[in-house]
Design brief:
Elements: H1 10-18, H2 21-31, H3 37-60
């Protein structure tokens, strides 16, 4: 698995973590009383479950035939 953290300064990583829009939105929802920390945890749990289900579904599928990989990428009848 590719590890992007090897190529970035730790300060840069922390800088962008502080600017994470999902984290900021969550903090604002909690601060305004619209949601609680528990609500956000429940949402995270639901999202993770949905993504896991989508990955499992995709992994059960069949692989595309190599001959079909470029189908619909360009017009089959196009001329230069």
């Amino acid at each position: 698995m590719y590890d992007p953290d090897r190529y970035r300064d730790k300060g840069e990583i922390e800088h962008w973590r502080e600017r994470d829009p999902l984290t900021i939105a969550g903090q604002r929802l909690v601060a305004s009383g619209v949601a609680s920390d528990d609500d956000l945890k429940d949402i995270d749990t639901e999202v993770i479950a949905e993504v896991d289900a989508a990955v499992a579904f995709a992994e059960m599928g069949t692989h595309e035939d190599v001959a079909e990989l470029t189908r619909f990428v360009t017009s089959e009848g196009a001329t230069a």
